[in-house]
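Two quick folds needed for the group meeting slides. Do the first one here.
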Amino acid sequence: MVEESARVLKVEGDVVWVQAIAKSACGSCQAQKGCGHSLLAKAGQKQIDLPVDRNGIHVQENDQVIIGVPEQAILRSSLLMYGTPLIAMIIVAMVASLFGIEEKLSVLLAFTALVLGFVWVNRHAKSLNFAQWHPRLMRKAQSVETHIPMCEIQ
């Protein structure tokens, strides 16, 4: 289970709305003021609001919690979303090459297969049961924070 910390926004019965912040390790680095990667990480930082099953854990608004996502969910969704269109593109490019189709047309067909692969995944994903792939509320987070540096200046 991949775990991430989040903050409880609101509690609605058995569903808890949490806000997870995608963050990098740059927040604890000593060199963050002079680092270009730190600027990119701050610019790309996103806040994600999502509903999570309560799992019988008593939480209130503004509580810090740990949510978990099964590894299989990450692997399968990545393969479905990215692997399927790429495999379609590669197969079409190989078939076009075997039939001796001109390179410009072969590239166009491969790109079309990629786009159609993304369209197929979008339509197919709506019919799948993703209930077992959803994040779960694991536990309340400890209030004690550690200040372990993630990178050091040498």
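Then this one, please, same format:
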Amino acid sequence: MKFAKTALVLTLLASSAAYADFSANVGYASEYHYRGIFQKNSSASGGLDYEQGGFYAGTWAADVGDGLEVDGYFGYAGEIGGIDLSLGYTGYFYTGDFDDTYQEINLGTGYGPLSLEVALGEYENFDGPTQDYVYYALTLESEAGFYGKYAGFSEDFDGEYLELGYGATVADIDVGVSLIFANDDLVGDDEESIVFTIGKSFDIN
């Protein structure tokens, strides 16, 4: 199945590359948290993205201490009657022993400032039994850059978190700050974190 997904992406890339938008990004986070879970202090990242007619594909990598987290993703996003809809795939891979592979189907919808995302995933779990999980997130975002997110996990994973933040672009540099409140099911102890981020995107057409 993985080979079929790869072949589909390559075919679409080859057929429409001349009309596509390509971009790159670099970033830095004072603490790298993903879905409420702490990954590493002081983490740099970078990625490449492709977009054409609603179809998107890309890759992104971040420093997690023991090697890199390398993500690959593709999907389609569109709008019907003012409602945003998306369907995609994401794989999370690691060059070291920091973690094992995650693969998931991503579903998303939104209307105005409110959006909902759901991921149906499978975790390879090293030598242990494979685990299934569902991730869900409800986000409310204002045009001024403030947002609030309530999210969590179910099935073989458990835990919830609340994230409140603000993002802005200053002189073509993206800056952000967020407060993360995760419960003990997610991080082992109740944890509050403040995260500062900075990043830059580049068109490479």
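Slide caption for protein two: Residues 106 and 119 are 5 Å apart (CA to CA).
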